[in-house]
Amino acid sequence: MQNRLSHTFVFLKTLLLAVMVVSVTNCSRIQRWVQKKNLSPGQNAEDAVQNNAHLIWEMYQVVYAEEPRDQSLIYRFAEILQQGAKIEGIYNGFTRSAKFRKKEEEAISCASDSLAIFTEELARLELSFAVPRKFTGEDARPLPLPQFPAEEAGGVPGPKPVPSHHASIDPARRDLESLRKEYSEHFSRSSCFTLKRILGDEALRLLRHFGGDRLKQAAWYGRWAARLSGRKTDFGLPERNDPVAATHEEWALKNPVGSIQWEVLNRLHRLLNPVPQKPSKGKPQNES
């Protein structure tokens, strides 16, 4: 009887070990499949995560206008991006974090030259729509409350729905100078962080507006990026400062929408950041 129990115990132990080995093997296969699914041709998982880390590092540094101090945070977001998160979602998490809201509240009003850049760039974005959006004094204030439980930079919610008070602009006033004047009145006391958030949200809205028309989107991006090169702002990489529209258009046609989104957001934030930004540490999913 004792021998039978001993054999039964050994059998059950062996069976349990076999199940554990199969489970670990299956998990490893799933992880490898997920990694391969998100890789570019010729890219291994380690390189992909490293490139994502460079992108997140640049996003943190450009959005918050400060160097990231927590490397684990950067790699955590890099892993999230590797697992399939969208660049737009991570960016929205940054600009809707408690950390960013605090910067909006504590920063002084934007300098007059930065306000002039903001009003022109916002007006040009709005004129790309059939009906420009009308802004009010409410838009010029920081977000009223954090929109998710605060982590240092974290969360990946989408932008707020457009409130009903966002009426359309009177068609008779649909010209660059009229819009710039109106925006100057609304945003004259806003911090640069508020202005950066507004510009980023409207740029993302425009990129979504193109839908699946990649040719139209790339043509717009080429003209837009070439025009911004005339601002003489360091956008982090020499390729970003190329004044030739065709170069940027060709790049946009070869890259995913998420990469285009970040190239647009990166430029808009660097235009308004209160201090000069250092060059990017690498070339993750950006122009090269």
Structural commentary:
- This protein is mostly helical.
- The chain has one domain.
- The protein contains 11 helices and no strands.
- It has helices spanning 2-37, 45-64, 71-82, 87-95, 98-106, 112-126, 176-187, 192-209, 214-229, 245-254, 257-272.
- It is globular, with a radius of gyration of 24 Å.
- Residues 8-42, 148-165 and 276-285 have low confidence and may be disordered.
Observed structural traits:
mainly alpha, globular, about 0% strand, about 290 residues, single chain
Helix-and-strand structural type: mainly alpha
The residue fraction in helices comes out at 55-70%
- Give the mean pLDDT: 79
Quantity of strands, as a count? 0
The low-confidence runs, each spanning 5 or more residues with pLDDT under 50, are: 8-42, 148-165, 276-285
**Total domains, how many?**
1
Give the N-terminus to C-terminus distance in angstroms: 74 Å
The gross shape turns out to be globular
The Cα radius of gyration reads 24 Å
SSE ordering: HHHHHHHHHHH
Number of helices: 11
Proportion of β residues? under 5%
- Biggest sheet features: none
